[in-house]
Amino acid sequence: MSVSKKLAGKRIAITGSTGFLGTALVERLMRCVPDCELVLLVRPGRRSTVEQRARREIFRNDVFHRWMEELGDGDRKAGAEPFWAQVERRVQVIPGDVGTDGLALNDEGREIMSSCDIVIHSAATVSFDAALDLAVEVNLLGATRIVETLQDLEVTPHFVGVSTCYVAGNRRGDAPEQLLTDSPFHIDVNWKSEVAAARRTRSDFDAESRAADRLEEFRARARHELGAAGTPLLSQKTEQLRQRWVSEQLVEAGRARAASLGWPDAYAYTKALGERALVESRGNVPVSIVRPSIIESAWAEPVPGWIKGFRMAEPILISYAQGLLKEFPGVPEGVVDVIPVDLVVAAIIDVAARGPEDPETVDITQVASGTRNPLHYRQLVDLVNGWFTENPLYDKKGQPIAVAKFSFPGRGAVERQLDRAHKSLDRADRTLKRLPLRGKQAMLNAQVEDQKDQVERAMGYVKIYGAYAECEALYGVDNLVELHDNLTKKDQAELGCDPAIVDWAQYVTQIHLPSVVHHARVKTTPTRSDPDDRENRTRKKVLSPDRQLAAFDLENTIIASNVVFSYAWLATRNMGPADRVKFALKTFGEAPALLALDSRDRTDFLRHFYRRYDGASVAQMEKLGSELLADHILTKAYPAAVRRVREHRALGHRTVLITGALNIVVDPLRPLFDDVVCTEMSVRNNRYTGELLSVPPTGEVRAAELRRYAAEHGFDLGESVAYADSSSDLPLLDAVGYPVAVNPETRLASIATKRGWLIENFTKAEGPTNRILPLGPLPAYKKSRK
Amino acid sequence: MSKNRPNPRPGFVLEVDRQTPPILFHHGEGFRMEKLPVGRSRVIYPPEPLHGIKDPDAAIADALANPIDDDPLAELMKPGMKLTIAFDDISLPLPPMQRPDIRQRIIEQVLDLAAAGGVDDVHIIAALCLHRRMTENELRHAVGDRVYEAFAPYGQLYNHDAEDPEGMVILGTTKHDEIVQMSKRAAESDLVVYVNINLVSMDGGWKSTATGLSGYQGVRAHHNVKTMRHSKSFMDQDASELHRSNWRQGEVIKKSGPRIFQIETTVNTNAFGSDGPMSTLQKREWEWTARDRATFAGMQAGLKLMPSGAKHKAFHNWKAPYEMTSVQAGEVEAVHKKTTEMVYKQHMVPVEGQTDIVTMGLPYLSPYNVNSIMNPILVTVQGLGYFFNLYRGKPVVREGGVLIMSHPTPWEFHPVHHPSYIDFFEQVLADTTDPIEIEKKYEKQYAEDEWYRHLYRTSYAYHGVHPFYMWYWASHAMEYLGGVIVVGGDPKAVRRLGFKPATTLNDALEMASDVVGPAPTLTHIHNPPIFMADVQ
User: CA angle A397-A403-A405, nearest 5°?
Assistant: First the structure.
């Protein structure tokens, strides 16, 4: 009897249908088994219903393109039911979560579940660097939860669990299709205590992450990354770092626990224990287990090269092609056990159609290529190398990237090499961040960070996948071949699962690599990607008439000056030569302390510094204001920035200057903007008091001011632009839809680059000489007395 | 000033032969010595500086007491009258002269007469039209500390503000529909005494009041491409549409404006003095003594070592030992006739025929960058506006010929003085260099820009429209010439101007021969000191 006949009228529940394997499985069942019905157990998304999720993540996937084409329009092709009608009729999507006891099913879900004839469990956290507890909840407990729910519902459908060949652990030699407990290498650990331990590990690390010194460390790191970005942003970052630290510890814990028991990673370890838990808890539910090896793109079905997602060997291949990964650990004569996804799908369907071999025991089918049709590591490397030599990727400048020849070093050598690179980049990063760089020089740091990220990624790959490349177990596939042989001739062609069919040279060079390169969206043509192009496009968006509001910072955005310089100019304007020297020396002496205060907290700095204006005459300051504009502000201004403000105005955008500078300094610039929000100082007896009327608009206060301003005037911040120069302006930049970093200092440069913000490097007008400390010009009467 | 100075020699034209030494080219804040092609080059040398009047104060007193076609100034001073004294701004003379400035000498005497006549209501205005405001130091230099301290603190000595909505009036329109605009204070005065320094023949006359005390509405009548292209040259009053337009506006002032008492002066061309390091620049190369050569070599070596800031300061601190060669007062047109005669007497050099190429070395200074930076647009106006137009009859270069000028042309701007220049260079010239298109597409926008207006009125910025006028000034040359090459300029800046950059004069000559043919003839304008070519 054919497979489709056996499965006709059957209702099949599937978990993990949004995953790579699951989606392929849904497609194959829909297309090749016309009379079955599917129940998809889907976890509700944060913002979408399970139906929406299924539609978006499963049925709109290009995996269905072939079938849709075969169905045609439905109206013209007599008899053929249109695609969406079939989906409507044959598929039921129910909310559920294998990570929760009872699968989080509602009553309807339970009812539907209890009506199923077959349950295929393919949900898993396949990410090789999953957190220990997460892997335990999903991989270890998932299958058990399902069979327990089925027992609870008092039904006994055929349970087909998808596992992995790597449950056999890191070892050389044969790994036949048998239960782990039957293996002579079996290590007896209690899966229940492993679950408890994993859960405890999470709370332990969580507790540790909240210790005072840890929190202090996260705060320091947040400050290192963001600078003086204000308390709200820094706290947000600190909490982010804490959570990341906890999950990093859990990943590491998972890897360590797996290694201690002889598994390559937490995935294999949890899957292995999951199998044992399943066997123990299955009760009277008949169970079959399918263990694929490394699943890669399709050999033929639905189309050669079909793949979903990008998380297994693909990143390694692309990194290699990009010249990033020059070595990868592995044994040249070793076997890389790769299996095309369509063979795995076929095997699962065949097992489901065949039914449990013996309801008393658990039967196991391994879907692997290593023993039947091995692909050796050297062959793979040669194929990949040859293919990328003929079809190189191109770098940003349009130059082809030459791929390296592997020398098959041990994992340690590669790790050491990467570690050295990482350390030196890390040093460069730290050094650059400490230097007071701006604009183009600061962009250097962004580059270093980018390289550091790349090396970190490469290190990750080596750590995670290195173990697999070194694994020399040979997975027996006798059951698989028998399964295939028992199919009808027609089924062997349509739903065959014998890995012998794969021609590796053809698979690697004509199917898999083209598919991977296509999905990775990398440069495969020598056209020079012009970064200016992107910049111009972004600039065009910033200067679109649709924008509503443009907010500007003053210092280092419009003018190359700061509050200290303005003060120095004003203070010395009426001083004689001797006093000037004294003033300059005093100011230079204070400089380090002032700078340190500024980098800690801008508001404190401003408050502290503005005390100096205590007692200054209001009338005199007003008089000096316009002179300050001519002699100091305009000399230090960036003409392009001034032009930009005016461009925004010409486009009908409201322009607003939001600055921590004092009104005395800002007043002459008022005509340039529609509005000005600045620091105001209180006045007593026509003299400044040195005390501020309100909190100066810097950091988060500046963002708040902008929000208040936008709300008051009815502007949409999403349609607004903000210009600023430093990471202390992050709250302001974050608040708008179109942030622009102007002459960014190091931290902002890296952040802006990562987020794809427009970066403008405005320069001062060439010509006027630079003064280290700008002093006011000598008064004419003092000069003529000389 | 030695008593027995030899009589100044007239200007002349040197034909370059094998014996001719390398010729001095000014080159911004530096110099170049260039060998010119033998047998087909000529150099026009300016006349030597005329002798100055020995007692300028007496001459001024005499001019005020015996004006031309007018009553003595003392008789015009009446108690209770409104008196306005207007004077030429920082753009004259070039370079600024040593103290005491002629304006100070004259204004002090005018004020003495006013005091004697019982005049209390006196305003003194720097007639700068759309130029930048003068700083306190510059005003003190022009009028002297005594006058400054007596008037400035009371708001009676100030810069003209052509954008003061309350401060400007329209006097009427000419028969050509040209608007005549004037400072309200001047227009409402019983008497306007204008104090002029006439450096070149386009200065003075009705231009002093019709332009100097006017605003955008008034000067746009003649500061446009059409007028400038019909002024051949604008230095030659008989052939200048600019001159005619100003004179038409003068008619309106005569009819509906205040009474004008014009005081004009001329100075000689003693820009660099007869001794001191700069004096060599005023000598003819083959007459350089061993000492001159040593001084020059020393200066060149020094300039090479100097940081650019110090070099800039050294040049801009130079004050010319100009001497007054004439002073005349009274009715505007009669006075100006005499003034022009004196200017021609100092400047005119007869030249025969035209050549294929004209070369010039542009100095560090133009009328618009005193105490400032000579930006690329000012380089253009200095070469194609001023130097090119210093002719009577026809240009020294034939139509379709090539102008080669030497200047470093750095991509540099003074952000305080020339903010609209920066945008003109970055925005307008990046789009087009065609004067007509520029005038049509961009002038209004820059002229009426609020920010430029703010900077012009409160800071020290040239008016927003000023760079356009610079470009119009050069439009006659741009239309007439077959090409412009800049030697030793910043290539990027030069290309932005629409000109061709060359590293050496020889390269430039090679490039020029693509336009004018092989073995071209060449005229070098040995300016400064200034002269005017009378081309037959």
Answer: 160
Average pLDDT in the B261-274 region?
Answer: 94
Judge residue A690's burial from the number of C-beta atoms within 10 Å of its C-beta, 0-12 exposed, 13-18 middle, 19 or more buried. Answer: middle
Question: Tokens 């013996």 correspond to what residue?
Answer: A358
Write the CB contacts of A586 (distance below 8 Å, at least 6 apart in sequence): none
Q: How many CB atoms lie within 10 A of CB B145?
A: 15
Closest residue in chain A to residue B461, using alpha carbons only: A630
Q: Which of A3, A4, A10 is nearest to A39 (CA)?
A: A10
**Spatial separation of the C-alpha atoms in residues B397 and B402, rounded to whole Å:** 7
- Chain segment B299-353, per-residue pLDDT in tens: 999 998 888 888 888 899 999 999 999 999 999 999 999 999 999 999 999 999 9
Within 10 angstroms of residue B247's Cβ, the number of other Cβ atoms is 19
Closest CA to B63 of B340, B339, B320, B347: B339
- What integer best gives the mean pLDDT of chain B? 95
Question: Cα-atom radius of gyration of chain B, to the nearest Å?
Answer: 23
CATH classification (class only), B56-267: alpha beta
Q: What are phi and psi of B221, to 5 degrees?
A: -60, -35
Q: Which residue among B427, B449, B459 places its CB closest to the CB of A630?
A: B459
One of 3.90.226.30, 3.30.1130.10, 3.30.300.180, 3.40.1190.20 is the CATH number of B12-48+348-535, namely 3.90.226.30
Query: What letter does residue A524 receive in the DSSP assignment?
Result: -
Chain B residues at the A interface, defined by Cβ less than 8 Å, are 136-137, 140, 145, 309, 373, 410-416, 419, 422-423, 426-427, 449-451, 454-455, 458-461
ipTM score of complex: 0.83
pLDDT at A770: 55
Domain ranges across chain B: 12-48+348-535, 56-267
Q: Return d(Cα A163, Cα B111) in angstroms, integer.
A: 107
The amino acid that residue A559 corresponds to is: I
Bigger pLDDT: A608 vs A156: A156
| Structural domains present in chain A | 538-785 (3.40.50.1000)
Six-digit token string for B279 = 């004096």
Do B451 and A635 make contact, defined as CB atoms within 8 angstroms? no
* DSSP assigned state of A401: P
Chain A residue numbers touching B413 (CB-CB < 8 A): 639, 765-767
- pLDDT higher than threshold 80 for residue B40: yes
Distance of CA A116 to the CA centre of its chain: 38
pLDDT at position A785:
41
Asked if residue B501 lies in contact with residue B486, where contact means CB atoms within 8 angstroms, the answer is: yes
Cβ neighbours for B75, distance < 8 A, ≥ 6 positions apart: none
pLDDT attached to residue A776: 66
Confidence of residue B476 (pLDDT cuts 50, 70, 90): very high
Cβ within 8 Å of residue A265, ≥6 positions away: A128, A129, A254, A255, A258, A464, A467
The residue of B141, B374, B409, B416 whose CB has the most chain A CBs within 10 angstroms, and thus the best one to mutate to test that interface, is B416
Q: Are A672 and B451 inside 8 Å of each other by CB?
A: yes
Q: CB–CB of B413 and A646 under 8 A?
A: no
pLDDT for position A691: 85
In this complex, how many residue pairs, one in chain A and one in chain B, have their CB atoms less than 8 Å apart? 65
Contact A366, A479 (CB under 8 A): yes
Give the C-alpha separation, B417 to A775, whole Å.
Answer: 19
Pull the structure tokens for residue B418. Answer: 């020339």
Q: Is 70 exceeded by the pLDDT of residue B121? A: yes
Q: Could you read off the pLDDT of A439-480 as tens digits, one per residue? A: 677 777 777 777 777 777 777 777 767 777 667 788 988 989
pLDDT, position B488? 96
Relative orientation angle of helices A212-226 and A231-260, to the nearest 10 degrees = 120
* Chain A contact set for B408 (CB, 8 A): none
